[in-house]
What does this fold into?
Amino acid sequence: MRSESFNIKHKSIRSLRIGALIAAALILVFSAFRPMSAYSAYGDQEISDSKQKIKENREKLNEIKSQTYEVDAKLSELNKLKSDAAAYITKLDAELTGVGAEIDKLQNQITDLEELIVQTEGELSDAQAEEEKQYASMKTRIKFMYEHSNENILDVLFGSETIADLLNRTEYIQNVSRYDRDKLDEFIALKEAIASKKEDLESEMDILEQTQAEVEDRKASLEKLQADKKKEVSAYNARIASAESELSSMQADMANIQAAIKAEENNIAAIEAEIRRQEEEARKAAEAAGKAFTPMSAGDVSFTWPCPGSGRITSYFGDRESPTEGASSNHKGIDVGAPTGTGIVAAAGGTVVIATYSASAGNYVMISHGGGVYSVYMHMSSIAVSKGQTVSRGSTIGAVGSTGYSTGPHLHFGIRINGSYVNPLNYTRP
It folds into this structure.
């Protein structure tokens, strides 16, 4: 009995020791994961807030796009206005230049006509002076003939003493008659020339008056063109000023919206920095507790982190608020935020069974690792493998993007075992 009592007591003590060891182990385990639990509690709320901020930012981005379209339209309209104004002003300037050239030509014609008129007037004056001179000479000759009319030609001829004298007197009478006739012809010709000069002068004066009238008409046309140009330029300037004012107002609105978005982005960046800090604290706490991360078993498959360029997790496995219309609220993987183009690698070796595009998953790849184990990579900007291709662990299969139902560039990474999706963080960590 004593021995049996001892054995029972010994078993009880042994059971107590085992229980204490298990309790200690559990305490260590839970103490190791307490920072992650605290992180989860903090992260859930902050991530929810971040999603709301992202939603607001998307709405504001849509507003900016709408504003951008309007700005582009205003810029196009403004450039067209400036082009039209320049074309119209160029046309008016060409017309003004043409009218100015015509006026210069007419002015030159007027100058030539005025010089010709001065010359004609001088010639007319000289002709009239010569006419007066000849007229005076003729009056003297007629007076002389009148006063000596009693001395006729016969007296002159019969007064000759010799034949030679007769011939000389006859020649003299012929010369006097010829001279009188020539002078009369000159006087008649001069009278006709004076009449012609007067006619030419009157014609030139008429041409001068017509030319001056044309100049006045062209000057009036020039003044009208200049007035039209001033009016049109003022109208174009007014329209351009109005368009520039609207453009300036829209640009100010855009600047305000962009400043607000920048503030939200800074806030999200601060939240993400805090999340990373808490993740780091959780990792250090786990290491300090002697419980560094040990991946769960997935048969013979060993996973590596699929996005070496980023360890920033923006959405965790499990229930969540849908980040955008069409996105799942029961998250069957994790989202790793990274810039577009960041490399994505195969988390484990296997065969590519899907490499395609869908409206929800965007560009995505599924790899079979054997034993009912698969990995999924969604929303890629590009795919670097094809269906049926064999890939090794860590080989590049694509790049981060934002195709499909996505609010921004990230990798959706999922692991499926025996037909069910599991939390990837149980199998790999950044």
Residues 60 and 286 are 41 Å apart (CA to CA). The first strand starts at residue 312 and ends at 315.
